Amino acid sequence: MYICEHIFINMLGLSIEITTDLETFVKSDESKLSYAKSPIGSEFFIKNFGLLFQKGVQPIELLMEEWEGIPYFFATKKGSLPFDILSASFFLLTRYEEYLHHEKNPTQPFTATNSIGYQYHFLEIPIVDIWVSRLKKALQEKYPNLEFASGEGATISVIEVAKAFKYKHKGILRTLLRGIAYFFTLQWTPLRQLIRVVIGKRKDPYDFYEALIAYFEEKKLHPTFFFLLGDYNYYDQGLSYNNVKYKYLIKHVADYAIVSVLGSYDAIFHQEILSKERERMINIINRPVRRFRSNNNLLPLPELYRNLADSEFKEDYTMCYPTHLGFRSGTCTPYIFYDIRLEVQIPILVHTCVLHWQQIDKQCPKEMFYKIEKIKQQTQELGGNFVSIFSPEYLSKAPNRFSIYKTIQEY
Prior knowledge:
Distance between the termini: 37 Å
Strand order of the largest sheet: 10-11-9-8-7-6-5-13-12
Largest sheet: 9 strands, mixed
Structural class: alpha/beta
Order of helices and strands: HHEEEEHHHHEHHHEHEHHEHEEEEHHEHH
CATH architecture of the largest domain: Alpha-Beta Barrel
Strand content: 15-25%
CATH class of the largest domain: Alpha Beta
Number of helices: 17
Number of strands: 13
Radius of gyration: 24 Å
CATH superfamily of the largest domain: Glycoside hydrolase/deacetylase
């Protein structure tokens, strides 16, 4: 039911009725599709591989094949398609492979290199959307009168702010300790930079906020800023959520863009802390807070999405690989998450993020830009979204970083 509704209603824009009653199906004069072990008549037929009727998570051997240059798995010999598109899409969207990984390696995070997308070289394409576009073509050939909706692709900019400033507003003790550390390690350039920022002779290196706002206003873009509001700890070393200057910055940015929560390390694993950080943001901006992104890209599934729903978040922007360009869940279309263990939908809209700023310096710039241009063109053709994640920290590292950022948004 879940994957049928997502593909046929959300992605293809069709109005469908699902039935398990054979007589109702046979008597219907509408365009028909059956999902079973064998066809009922001459209808469009997808042979059932079996995954959707399994209980819980079970080991699966994946055999990869190709369909006109595009990989697929869960092949079936008889059907209108060469494979079970419903099971294959379900496998990727629910992150079935991540459950399997954590059963074998409970203490090891799931990385891009663990994924079948990386191992079978389809990480950089929205493979689910490509499959669905071919399903659409096959349905049109079978039922020419079917009317499909066409999605409009979008470029979505996400700015994550774990450290709002490099030197400013950090308090006398933290600033003094950093200066002493620079002095005793003979780091004269950053020491001079720190002093000039503190005495007001230079702008803080991370202070790109006015430039970003002006750019978004000029290009009529609608970004989302995620600010860290967790308590100070080893993993989260931003400004205090009580810092007056920090709160002013958040309020100011909220006048021009959507502002939401960048979840701290503790919030990822504790629902009560997650709710507390959401309340902190609500109290600062005085408006609803729906969106979430995990700091440090931590994504424990399905626990995080359960906690997000319990904390009244509605959308998540954590579904990405910080080390590799591509589609972690195989799609450029936002989707509601499905909890395999509880066998229920979790009301969190998942946005798959394609590009994270940490990836950019790890590849040849020419090759990176070529890949980004190709991905953006493909997502636009498929009516999906290209979501990129940047930070003030990245923009500060070299004079050309802001130009790189703008180039990526405008491809």
